[in-house]
Amino acid sequence: MSSLKSKHMLGLDGVTREEISLILKTAEAMKEIFTRKVKKVPTLTGKTVVNLFYEPSTRTRASFELAGKMLSANMMNLSSSSSSVVKGESLIDTGKTLEAMGADIIIMRHSAQGSCKLLSQHVKASIINAGDGNHEHPTQALLDMFTIKEKKGQIEGLTVLIVGDILHSRVARSNIFGLLTMGAKVRVVGPATLIPVEYKKLGVEVFYTLEDALQGADVVNILRIQRERQKKGMFPSIREFHRFYGMNERIIPYLKDDVLILHPGPMNQGVEIDPIIALDDRAVIEEQVTNGVATRMALFYLLAGRGNQNEDLN
Predict the structure, then answer these.
(1) φ, ψ for residue 144 (rounded to 5)?
(2) How far, in Å, CA of 76 to CA of 107, rounded?
């Protein structure tokens, strides 16, 4: 396979193993560009990429912007607070306006589930989902899988544990879809109130005790506890969550010697993760950031370069 089936990346639910493999393979070449002395190629010269963020973001937005600039795309950043959205302009109207400005790719983060799919039905530009409500965050899952493959050499057959607020995590959903497609065994662990019952139907193994879930796990992906959800009483307290599900010193004996520790960031240190784990030699949290740029470069190349995948990357 040399191209993606869709011109959009709305989520990993339904994306084939061959497509994910293509993205990860392309990301390898992109990482070489990102890590060399001259960090720029003319691949997307003349293409316009827009960051359209209706929710706050630092890491994801900056990662997409850097990825576009390294491929020589024209980058535009637009947030809801600085656009006509505050004047009542609809999402579709905003998309049409960006299309009239020549946008080839629109990266969107929005609080409403399905918003990216809606926009994709009304514009000709490629849409990349940077997080829509509690639905999906596909590029985070792709960079996580790229990191796993890079460090472990494979994804198939590995046991990957996702820890924390599974219910509200779009990162967890995308990871579950992607990892299962790539042949990994997926586990989740957290308070019962934070684990959707339907995940069992997908073949996900559910745990409620962290120590049990860690046994034999090759990869541990630690989710950010969304403090704003605590107001809804999903678990008794932050302190209690940290006691039973926090990745801290007490769980070190349960970790495999070669375990890979991931976190999508930003980290709530002292809540879902302690510094002793974040700074462990087995943690690759900073490298995930680098791999995020490479993975998003790969997506830009495969989407904006549709029909021209053989273009020289040098």
Answers:
(1) -65, -45
(2) 10
Q: Which helix (H) or strand (E) holds 131?
A: strand 126-132
Is-above-0.85 flag for pTM?
A: yes
Peptide bond before residue 56 is cis, with ω within 30 degrees of 0: no
CA–CA gap between residue 234 and residue 66 (Å, rounded): 37
* pLDDT tens digits, one per residue of 234-266: 777 888 889 999 999 999 999 999 999 999 988
Going across the sheet that includes 105-110, the strands are 74-79, 48-53, 105-110, 126-132
312 in a domain, yes or no?
no
Q: Which residue do the tokens 């359209």 mark? A: 52
Q: What are the distances in angstroms from CA 272 to CA 101, 190, 268?
A: 43, 11, 6
On whether residue 8 sits in a domain, the answer given is no
Shared-domain flag, residues 281 and 190: yes
DSSP state of 269: B
Q: Is the backbone peptide bond immediately before 266 cis, with ω within 30 degrees of 0?
A: yes
Two structure tokens written together for 255? 């970790």
Question: Contact, 175 vs 162, CB < 8 A?
Answer: yes
| Number of residues that this document lists for the chain | 314
* Residue range of the domain that includes 44: 17-137+289-304
pLDDT, position 146: 98
